[in-house]
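One-letter codes give the sequence; the fold follows as tokens. An example follows:
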Amino acid sequence: MWDNAALLRNIANALLAFSVLAALYGTGYYMVHLPGLFPLHSVRLSAVPQRVIAENVLQAVRSEVKGNLFTVDIERLRQSLEQLSWVRSVSIRREFPDRLVVALEEHQALGRWNGVALVNTHGEVFDAVSEEQLPEFVGQEDDSFEVAQRYGEFRQQLTALNLQVAQLALSPRHAWQLRLSSGMVLELGREEMQQRLARFVVVYPYSLAEQAGSVRYVDMRYRNGFAVGGMVKS
């Protein structure tokens, strides 16, 4: 091998190129980490928060932003901001020469979850406080996505009757129950829920609307009818 001039030349060139790259990397790393170089002068929010408290964002920024534009730990800042109430996700980018741009995605509350938390429009449970009038969702720990999805479907079906869902519950046996804002409770069971609710929408104006204030329970699980207060109508 030592008699192969071409091979020795290639090895020498490769070692030289590696040395040059290592030197450039070392120089660049040193310069980037110089305290006075590329200082961070501002952190800008891409949009004004609607629910997230601005003071909490400022505190997180003050606590986590250290170093310059290139050495600041963006991942640590992102994780800190995602711990704030009403924050669903965070994206951060560097903006040359001296700024970070932060985009906050806020939760959009869809309902209340088991009386202790909120559910967003993605069916995700999150902890926050809201004074809004929201429907109550009841279900097992992993049911929030399905309950949120069904709520959207059921609410759309009831739009024609101008009826509002006050509570939607999914039992451990996977049976669905609706409570309307009037107090009327609808039992939809474990199968054909949309078809049963569609049947309710059809019969409501003719059979139930005039009694809506007094009817407290409607069981739609019958094949050819429904039950009101234990009495079957078909």
